[in-house]
Amino acid sequence: MTYPYLRPRRMRRDEFSRRLMRESVLTADDLIYPVFVHEPAGRAAVPSMPGVERLSIDELLRVAETASELRIPALALFPVTAPEAKSLDAASAWDDDGLCQRAVRALKDRFPELGVITDVALDPYTSHGQDGIVDEAGYVINDTTVEALVNQALSHARAGADVVAPSDMMDGRIGAIRAALEQDGFIHTRILAYAAKYASSFYGPFRDAVGSASALGKADKRTYQMDPGNSDEALREVALDLEEGADMVMVKPGMPYLDIVRRVKDEFGVPTYAYQVSGEYAMLKAAFANGWLDERACALEALLGFKRAGADGVLTYFALDAARWLREAG
Ligand code: PBG
To answer: Which whole number is the average pLDDT over 63-89?
Structure first.
């Protein structure tokens, strides 16, 4: 049978049948809000990310209240480290009284039901802006870095982080962190592995926001983050992280890598997240600011695309706005 008996447009004719056949939906449950925390009082704008601000812990608590009201499940914290706190060994990363640890304690104290995710990586704490400890040639030394990451993850767990999210792409770090968490009794701490993280040029505005861009200079992260041409390698990375004890896996960046999200979800069927990164946000915001694209419609469409690709959730700087728009739309 074919046309005229088969007319796919019949189902698209009315809103009721469009709603009935819709396969993917976006709700506030799908959103994770990344936030930048800094030491100074008040807020500071991030020029390449309009609408995003670095927040003091007091301001962070205000934002957390809004996020909770909007039923956003979790925040992802990114500390902006003062130059004095940066060093070659990144030791301030596991200071129990560091900015990230204080922010976690303040959040869990005031909003115990709001999930708190911390970034496990050394780049905010190294003087050179790499995600690990380097040798004389500037090469990130894997196993020494993993030891530091274990210290950092344990410090986050002691502060009360619900989820630790290693974003460094070292080999073996998930297994090492999982073993250390178990040994110290943190059996409930979830690990969200940045399993397939690419050496992307879309992280630029984030590096401005956390102040690692100037430290990194012209260097890149291609000896540990993945080559944008690869997809089988992503599956291998995800397989290893799951074997080593990850509870959730992430693909990053988002929109240019939706094929990876789909492959990961189909292959493993585990909780899978995508990060709509700073450059994707900046790109959309620039078009909105010029009046070239409609903000609400395009931001929600981009986020829905992650769901359709198989993501269970999205880390997005649009989280607060998106949750508001979804609520207004009922
Ligand atoms: C660092 C880290 C980065 C991002 C999250 N964690 C940047 C990088 O790897 O250089 C990027 C997030 C974004 O661009 O929004 N470990």
So the answer is: 96
